[in-house]
Amino acid sequence: MVSPLSGSISPLPASRAACAALDAQDPLAPLRAKFDLPEGVVYLDGNSLGARPVAALARAQDVIAREWGHDLIRSWNTAGWFELPGRLGDRLAPLIGAAKGEVVVTDSTSLNLFKALAGALHMQAGGAGAARRVIVTERGNFPTDIYMAQGLAGWLARGYTVRLVDSVEELPAAIDADCAVVMLTHVNYRTGYQHDMAAMSAHAHAQGALIVWDLAHSAGAVPLDLHAGGADLAVGCTYKYLNGGPGAPAFIWVPKRHQAAFAQPLSGWWGHANPFAMGPEFAPIDGIGRALCGTQPIISLTLVECGLEVFEQTSMEAIRAKSLALTDLFIALVEARCAGHGLGLVTPREHARRGSQVGFTHDHGFAVMAALIARGVIGDYREPAIMRFGFTPLYTSFTDVWDAVEILRDILDNGAYDVAAMRGAVT
Ligand SMILES: *Cc1c(COP(=O)(O)O)cnc(C)c1O
């Protein structure tokens, strides 16, 4: 039985048939049909690139043939292209505990992070935090987050430094009287560790800092409540758990309470109060629109809606219960059936500290993952030595978990991997 409260399964299923029985009683199982997944593939990489919603193909056809091809430039008005960032943001908002008018889907996560960080520094500079000069983040954060902060400190925000903290335990002390902004990724991309958002935000505020949360591995994966979590600003990705499509625009959240004070340096015309007045002076629009910069990739943007539509047919609570059941099952089966092969779990066992992915280290992690992919089990590899498996309750089944573990066991039992496996440009 899947317990809706804990998500844990007991006893541990001992056969594929037992996993199929779990699928038969899974309330989310019918949603798998909303995605087009190839036969013979166990897809455990939806944390990196979500699967394609079935609806995306017809939507792409319509936007290209009719909206662009036939209606041409009129579609900015007639198809609502111009309002799309805000309309999609409102649709995404319930997944992250945001209100309407607080989110826009736009630009990349990297760019939105730059805007959010610059905006947070600007708020501090104009208030009680004017003397603070440090951005605190984790050394283990996703690299682009660190790089964007370094870029900001190196160019626009001269005199600011980026303080990299080595462990979660060291974070509280690193958030001190010099800290202007804390920038954390809520679920770590490598380990799947989930921060306690409310506790960390409260600590940052108690020290006089603002906090920016990156939800790249959280949105659509775990229930979120940015307001209750005390976040100041947030960004996130739509092409991972939200299934928006490769390179789909990301999102940025600015809560109503900060919108009047929020300003960002990428002050393009889409953030202008009256863009078609074509005036020579920038004047930001009221509300979340000031987080926009310029013209958006409309074709990609429209497809984000197809991913969001699927979420409206369930709840994040149901998704979370299944996510924990899937990750618990995967951990337990790997530890039971692949014992003695030197695998090391890097993901927290504690539910509250776990996202929706599981990582195991192996000395030949890259080669083992290459062998898994060759046999249709698609996860990915992250330095150092981590095989990463993402679990996406909308389309991952309990049988998928069983099959993935059995193929992993077979590869390890037989040493059926090539330690000289070649790496592509993207791992
Ligand atoms: C995936 C991810 C990104 C991706 O940023 P892009 O600008 O889309 O390349 C950024 N930050 C984190 C934490 C991520 O997991």
Automatic annotation (TrEMBL):
Any one GO cellular component localisation term in the record: cytoplasm
Reactions the enzyme catalyzes: 3-hydroxy-L-kynurenine + H2O = 3-hydroxyanthranilate + L-alanine + H(+); L-kynurenine + H2O = anthranilate + L-alanine + H(+)
GO molecular function: kynureninase activity; pyridoxal phosphate binding
Pathway: Amino-acid degradation; L-kynurenine degradation; L-alanine and anthranilate from L-kynurenine: step 1/1; Cofactor biosynthesis; NAD(+) biosynthesis; quinolinate from L-kynurenine: step 2/3
Hydrolase keyword on record: yes
Residues involved in pyridoxal 5'-phosphate binding: 109-110, 142-145, 185, 214, 217, 239, 269, 295
UniProt xrefs under PANTHER family: KYNURENINASE
Similarity comment: family membership: Belongs to the kynureninase family.
Protein name: Kynureninase
UniProt organism field: Massilia glaciei
Lineage of producing organism: Bacteria, Pseudomonadati, Pseudomonadota, Betaproteobacteria, Burkholderiales
Originating gene: kynU
